[in-house]
Design brief:
Distance between the termini: 42 Å
Number of domains: 3
Shape: globular
CATH topology of the largest domain: Rossmann fold
CATH architecture of the largest domain: 3-Layer(aba) Sandwich
Number of strands: 16
Radius of gyration: 23 Å
CATH class of the largest domain: Alpha Beta
Helix content: 25-40%
Strand order of the largest sheet: 6-5-4-7-8-9
């Protein structure tokens, strides 16, 4: 029987200069789940246990946002099975459960409740934590390791009590993941990104309210594709090896921080649920000590996961590199790893440019964006090039991020740059550059 997952450790170079102090080595740890039966796709899916949290504040009436939400929820309800459990919560100054999980398979009841969402007497403000708490309570009624337990949050504005939202995710992240959807330009994208990343969910920027139904469909299709649960990579580092920084590399790019390495030399990285055929990977920047020439094991890694209906599983792989005095060998790079390194670098440039703009350093920001665009052009990533070029044009025009157009282009650039674009290694040019 085929294994339900592939797991590998790839280094940016198989050769390390023996005499080098603080040699930098990039390591990609990647897991790819197969579909049911090891086929790479298809098969039966896990039942859902969802809590849908809908912002019904006054601003949701702008641009027909609420109308598109109504359409999206109706689509969701029409695609449920008898085994699925979905509750719906509306919030503004107050939160109200408008459909319990027991009512969600009654399509007529869902339609009536969602059609009447604008009649609810829940105020016009934005208390997202109240909506999240109500949805979590509903999800917990059917909490089961054999179900996909997730809360979906859609909002278009700044919320009160942001810390309360973060605390709710931290308290429930071991059992429930959170996906967040920001509509327009007034919401706090950093908050929504953190809620999703901290729980291994998904963050979506919705610039056009008409895309709301499609985003709900994307979430539903992703949940249906999950074949492995609670994936985690445990790493044991060789003595003297240090981790400078860590990024989630796919399916989205974001910083995972610099871990504190104890005496046991161990560190863990959570991947969450894995969709069939979609890589879940972590990119480590390691700093290596000088050593005598020869083959040296840099790390041991183990992937742990749950197979629904079967039990726990694991896969292991080690990574060894060849210490050498031959500098020409160390210049040979793994194109696939370096492609992801470049993508992470571009995401870092975009984030740094945003920080400089907020600090009023327009010249620095434009230089950083120019460098990022050069990187996307070199990689052949036309979508990211276009998004960053649009942001650069807006910055040059407005000198700020305060306009609606500038904020829209920023959020769009963030979303595009964050999505991992795995290019064909054979098509990559000028990527085997010396380090």
């Amino acid at each position: 029987m085929a294994e339900p997952v592939s797991f590998e450790a790839l280094a940016s170079s198989q050769h390390v200069l023996s005499s080098a102090e603080n040699f930098v080595l990039y390591v990609l740890l990647e897991a790819v789940a197969r579909g049911a039966g090891g086929s790479g796709g298809g098969g039966s899916r896990l039942p859902l246990n969802l809590g849908v949290v809908i912002d019904r504040s006054g601003s949701m009436y702008d641009e027909q946002r609420l109308d598109f939400v109504v359409e999206a929820v109706k689509f969701l309800a029409s695609n449920l099975t008898a085994q699925d459990k979905v509750s719906i919560v509306a919030f503004a100054d107050k939160a109200k459960v408008i459909i319990t999980s027991d009512e969600s398979t009654n399509r007529d009841a869902v339609k009536r409740a969602i059609d009447d969402i604008d009649l609810l007497e829940i105020g016009g403000g934005t208390q997202m934590a109240l909506g999240m708490r109500a949805a979590i309570e509903e999800v917990k009624k059917n909490l089961d390791s054999s179900r996909l337990n997730r809360v979906l949050v859609l909002t278009d504005g700044q919320t009160y009590e942001e810390t309360a939202c973060i605390d709710l995710v931290q308290q429930n992240r071991d059992k429930i993941s959170f996906s967040t959807m920001g509509v327009g330009v007034e919401f706090n994208e950093k908050l929504l990104q953190r809620l999703a990343q901290d729980s291994n969910g998904k963050y979506h920027f919705i610039g056009n309210p008409g895309d709301i139904p499609g985003i709900f469909d994307d979430e539903l299709q992703g949940l249906r594709a999950v074949t492995l649960r609670n994936a985690r990579i445990d790493v044991t580092l060789a003595q003297g090896v240090q981790v400078r920084e860590t990024f989630r590399a796919s399916p989205e790019i974001y910083a995972m921080g610099t871990p504190i390495i104890g005496d046991d030399r161990k560190v863990s990285y959570e991947l969450g649920d894995l969709e069939a055929g979609v890589p879940g990977s972590v990119l480590l920047t390691l700093v290596l000590p000088p050593r005598r020439p020869g083959l040296v094991r840099m790390l041991q890694s183990a992937l742990h996961y749950d197979v629904p209906g079967v039990g726990e599983g694991s896969a292991a792989c080690d990574l060894a590199v060849d210490y050498t005095l031959d500098r020409t060998l160390t210049s040979k790079r793994n194109a696939r790893v370096m492609n992801l390194v470049d993508q992470v670098s571009i995401a870092k440039l975009q984030a740094k440019a945003e920080e400089e703009l907020k600090a009023g350093n327009v010249d620095r920001a434009t230089r950083l964006l120019g460098n990022a665009i050069q990187g996307t052009q070199r990689m052949g990533n036309s979508k990211a090039t276009q998004a960053l070029a649009g942001l650069l044009d807006e910055v040059k025009k407005t000198q700020t991020l305060q306009t609606k157009a500038a904020k829209t282009t920023l959020l769009n650039a963030q979303a595009v740059v964050r999505k991992t674009q795995m290019l064909d290694p054979d098509a990559l040019k000028d990527i085997n550059k010396p380090g």
